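Tutorial handout. Part one gives the primary structure; part two gives the three-dimensional structure as tokens.
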Amino acid sequence: MFLDYYTQWKSMMTSGQDLAFWQEFYVKFYQAFIEADRWKQYLEGVGTTLVVTAMALAIGIVLGVLVAMLRTAHDQQRPGHANPLLGVLNTLCTIYTTVIRGTPMMVQLLIMGLVIFASSRNFTAVGALTLGINSGAYVSEIIRGGLMSLDSGQAEASRSLGLGYLDTMRFIVIPQAFKAVLPALSNEFIILLKDTSLITYIGGKELLYAAQGVYGRTYEAMFPLVGTALIYLALVMVLTWLQGKLERRLRASDRR
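Part two.
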């Protein structure tokens, strides 16, 4: 029945006959999401988007934590006891964060996709790597701010009890810093999810790529793009809900 209505009203639109608003809406909605099982393209795009986000998130967290710990260790050295190796690593980390934060994401993607990995056909992996490297620079500054905001006396007390630097960071400093920077980290992860739409420009087949494929065949851009925006909105709302749930759990653990 629904297909019959669609076929009839689409034929009327093609022949130039006027349709009611709801009839035209139905035809455009049907051809954007239902005809030829096009909803599957969006579903595949969502899957790729989530995979890219997870990969980039893992890369960003590892890079961010590593860079933050190196820079914090360098900044917290006692006067007259500077470690030359830490100085070199701190300089490299500073260059990394400055370059990544000072250049547009789109330019970074194009350089990675069209220059550095020009011979690669795995556009999704290239996009995830680029997003992860970009996110790592921002995550490092967020975590470094959290680490530097804690009272240095806690680290000194833990060392006086025999804990090494790594154990001090792992058991004392990082857990407290994580609670302080969780809102900022969550915001960065949401931005990362939305930035996955940029990999379509180097050939990544994520959600926006699916929408472009649909309106390239239907010549109707509004429904695919609005539908894509609503899907991203739903994903962000889920992440926001998870963030709130985690924050409530951490506050409950503090009260206990």
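Part three, for discussion. The two ends are 60 Å apart (CA to CA). The chain has a mean pLDDT of 84.
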